[in-house]
Amino acid sequence: MYDVAIIGAGITGTFIARELSKFDIKIALIDKETDIANGTTKANSAIIHAGYDAKPDTLKGKLNGLGNTMFDQVCKELDVHFKRVGSFVIASNEEEMESIKELYARGLKNNIPDMKILFQEKVRAMEPNINEAVIGALYAPTAGIISPWELAVALAENAADNGVEIKLENCVTGIDKKTDNFLVHTNNGEMETKYIINCAGVYADKINEMVGSKTFEINARKGQYNILDKSAGNIVNHVIFQAPTKLGKGVLV
């Protein structure tokens, strides 16, 4: 019997597996895919956010900024490249300037350090290729970029070195709640575990429903990436976001 079964071997599941592997417990890391980070993780934007966007007084608001500060040490330990390039949220009109002022206020409540609201001249000095219509920006220097799959693989390898059993191509098909443990059914058999940690990404609601009532639903959205040649890497110097609207966060670079 396992002490903990982690369902989902993306960035969240591998981080948890590595952390729990520091303790003397038996852990299984389960994923339906053929490799680590083959789900949501492989398609994210590779940005380590500063943490100003999360609503204050929420768990996400508390942990975003705290998690950001941990990446330098984690990446040093795992020999994974991480670069703090900083981020801009740009505004092209007064309405968008009000929006980034609201983000700045959120960031202050979330204790995000060193943020600044910049105006056109300073923005263009830091980003010479930015659109001339931009009149200002929220600058957050603690934002960074990283390879999410490289980090997830490094986390999984470290966890495996510490004794975590990685079970790929194991799709969870059902979970039975027993008196003191759980019986997890997969396409490759069954396993018993005392605890389950649900890290199943966009399928987390389906895993949740296997052991309880339908308490939340994930409605996934598709985005689109345009990948430029490496020779275009110096067109921008920072991560650049549009000011958010009711329809979404727009294009990011």
Automatic annotation (TrEMBL):
One Pfam match: DAO
Gene3D superfamilies reported in the protein's UniProt record: D-Amino Acid Oxidase, subunit A, domain 2 (3.30.9.10), FAD/NAD(P)-binding domain (3.50.50.60)
Coiled coil ranges: none
FAD dependent oxidoreductase domain location: 3-244
SUPFAM superfamilies: FAD/NAD(P)-binding domain
InterPro entries: FAD-dep_OxRdtase, FAD/NAD-bd_sf, G3P_Oxidase/Oxidoreductase
Protein name: FAD dependent oxidoreductase
Organism: Marinisporobacter balticus
